[in-house]
Amino acid sequence: MSIEFFEGKNIFHLQNEEISYVIKILKNGQPGHLYWGKKIKNAERLDRYPTSQHRPYEAYAVKNDSGFILENIAREYPSFGQSDFREPAYQIEAENGSIISDLKYKDHQIYSGKKELDGLPGVYLEHDDEAESLEIILYDEVLDLELTLTYTIFRDYPIITRSANFENKGKQNINLKRALSMSVDFEYRDFELLQLSGAWGRERDILRRSLDQGITKIDSKRGGSSHQQNPFAALVEPDTDEYGGEAYGFSLIYSANFIAQAEKNHYGKTRMSMGINPFNFNWLLENDQSFQTPEVVMNYSDQGLNKMSQNFHQLYRSHLVKGRYRDQERPVLINNWEGTYFDFDTDKILEMAEAAAEVDIELFVLDDGWFGKRNDDTSSLGDWYVNEEKLPGGLEYLAQEINNLGMDFGLWFEPEMVSPDSDLYREHPEWAIQVENRESSLSRQQLILDLSRSDVQDYIIERVSAILNKANISYVKWDMNRPMTEYGSLKLKPGRQRELNHRYILGLYRVLEAITSRFPDVLFESCAGGGGRFDPGMLYYMPQTWTSDDTDAVERLKIQYGTSIVYPASSMGAHVSAVPNHQVERSTSLKMRYDVASFGNLGYELDITELNVDQIKAVKNQVKNYKEIRSLVQFGDFYRLRSPFESNFTAWSYLSQDKEEVLVGFYQILASPNPREQKVKLKGLDAGAEYKELSSGEIYGGDELMNYGIKVPYLKGDFSSKVWRFQMI
C-alpha cells in the first residue's frame, strides 16, 4: 500500500496489492483521472497517452490547444462549463450570480491513516498503518474558495474512500448548489448499471440495465435513504456475473436524500457520480465557513459481484460498525409486535416472556405501545413516559421480571417523530418540520421533529437517556416511520431553508453519537418502516438494521439476497413470524421460515403462547441450532449460489474464515410434478480438504463440492427448503 507523487509528471498513484488509482494534474491546473482498476506496477507511464484531441464543434479550455476539450477528458471532480457540458460534481453561485468556478491545483498532502469527518459517519481505522490518505487542495482565486479532495486507500481491501470539503476563505457569500462526494470518468466502456430498488415490503430488488447515451439516475427525495432506492450503485461489464468479470461498486455513507448517477456522453465515456441529492439543496457558505460532503466507498472487483460484496461485508463489519457488538454474536430475540400489536399489558408480556424463556430465547423486545396514551398509532409519539396503566410498576419491574427469567430486555422507540395528539406537540408545535401557513401532510398519523434544531436534539437525547437509565435495557429498536414532506423549519432563515434535510441528518447523527456513547453496552437496531433507512450511515451508529417489515419467508429470499450485495448478514435482522403472514397472507412451514431467517440475525415475531407442543419443541431446536451456527452466519464469508430473481430456486452459503465450516441453504418456491434434479455447486472451499456433512455423516471432497456439487433431495410441496452443514475433517 502506498501513495506516490511523480512531481515531474504531476501524477498521483494510489496502490495496494490489488488495485491502482491514478490521478494527473492537467495542463489547466485541474485534476484529471487516468486509471482505476487492477494493479499496474508503473502507472506513471500512463502519461504517454495524450489528453488533447481535436473535435469538431467543441469548445476548448486552453487557449493554445484546440484539442484540450474537457467534454472529452476524464476528470476527477468536474465543474460545469469551460468546455464540459456533462453533469458536474459541484456547482456554486457567487454573489454576482455567476455559476462559473475554476478550482486549480494548489498543494497536496500524503499521510498515513485517515481523518474523521466533521459531524459525519465514515469508515475508521484501528491503526494508522491500515490505510494511507491523499488530500489534493484546489483553489479558485476569483472566489477565494478552497476545495480539498480526500482519498484513502486501504492496505487490506481493494477499496478507496472519497469525500470533498469546501471552505470559503473570502468575504463574499457563496451558495453551494451541488456538492457531490465523488465523480469518476471512465473511457470507452459498455457498462451496465446495477442498483438496489423496490418499495416498502419489497426492498432492495436487484435491477440491472445497460447504459446508453444520456443520464441514468437513482435518487431519494423522501428525507431518508428510502425503501425505493438504496445509496448504492455498481458499474459492471455486460459479461460480469457473480464470480467473473469487473465490477465497480459505490456505496454512500449517508442516510438522507442522495443521488447516484451514470452519464454516458456522445464520445462513449461514462461519468459516475454520487453524493447528496442536489434537488432542493443549497448551502450558504459565509466567510470562514466550510462544508463537508459524506464519504463514498469505492470498491473494485475483477472476480465478479460476489467478491465485490465480500469486500463491502469485510470492510463494514470491521471498519464501519463500531462498539461492543461489532465482534460479538448477536442475541436471539423475540418481539411482541406481530403477536400483540398495541393490545398488551404486563401480564400478557410476561406470559410471552415465560414461554420464550422455555425455548432459550435470549432477549425479549417490547415494541410500540408502552408510552404516553399509545393504544393505537394516532397519539403520543414524543411523550416518552411509561404508560403505567398498561404496565404497572413501569419498565423497571417488567425488565427485572424478564431478567429473572434469564433473558435480556429490549425496547422500541420512535424518537424522531411526534403525534399531533401528544403533550409534546401541544407544548412545542414549532418543533415539527413544517412550512409556515401551509398544512402539513400526515403519514401514519404523525409528523417529523425538526432535528436541525439543537433544542429538539437535546430533548431526544435526554428523554431516551432517561428511559435507558431507569430500567435494565440491553437493546433498542430505533424506528422512523414516514417520509419527509413540506420541507421547512420555523427556525432556519429563508436563505437556509434548503439546508434542512442535511441539517436534519447531521442533527440525527449528533443524537445517535451522544446516545450510543452514553450506553455502549446497549445493542441498537435501526429501523425505518423496515428497510427504509438501511444504509452505511446508520450502520456506523447501530450495528444491525430491521431488514424489512415484510417477514414472509418467500419474499425475504429476495430481500435478504438483494441486501447481501452490499451489507453483511451481521447487519440484517431476520424474524420467524406467524402464519398466515401479516403482510402477504401466505402460509409457509415453520421449518421454511427458520431456514430463511437463520441466514441473518435470528428473531421471532409472533405470540409464542399460541404455538402447540410440537411447534414449541421445534422452536427450541431451532434456537439451539442457531446458537451453534450464528458465529458462522454473522461473521463468515457469504456466497450467492442461485438467485431468486432468476429462477424458482434460491441457494446461498456461509464459509468460515478458516474454510473449516460451511452452511448451505437451498429453497424451492413452487413445487412441480416429476421435477428435474437440482444440484448446487459450492464456492470458496479448500479443494484438497475433506468435509463431513453433519446430518448424514457423508464425506465429500472440497473439490467435489465445488466442481460436481451436491444433489438436492426431492423437495415436496411449495415453499420448501434444505440446509446442509459441513465440517472439515
From TrEMBL:
- EC number of the protein: 3.2.1.22
Which reactions are catalysed by this chain?
Hydrolysis of terminal, non-reducing alpha-D-galactose residues in alpha-D-galactosides, including galactose oligosaccharides, galactomannans and galactolipids
> What sequence ranges are listed for the domain Glycosyl hydrolase family 36 N-terminal?
29-286
Please give a single GO biological process term from the UniProt record: carbohydrate catabolic process
The entry marks the following residues as binding substrate, namely: 200, 367-368, 444, 477-481, 527, 549
- Boundaries of every Glycosyl hydrolase family 36 C-terminal domain copy: 650-726
Q: What class of enzyme is it?
A: hydrolase
Query: InterPro entries under this entry?
Result: Aldolase_TIM, Alpga-gal_N_sf, Alpha-glycosidase_related, GH, Glyco_hydro_36, Glyco_hydro_36_C, Glyco_hydro_36_N, Glyco_hydro_b
Active-site residues per Swiss-Prot or TrEMBL entry: 479, 549
Sorted alphabetically, which Pfam families does this protein's record hold?
Glyco_hydro_36C, Glyco_hydro_36N, Melibiase
Q: Which keywords are on file for this protein?
A: Glycosidase, Hydrolase
- MF terms (GO), sorted A to Z: alpha-galactosidase activity
Q: Which family does it belong to?
A: Belongs to the glycosyl hydrolase.
Q: What is this protein called?
A: Alpha-galactosidase
Q: What is the lineage of its organism?
A: Bacteria, Bacillati, Bacillota, Clostridia, Halanaerobiales
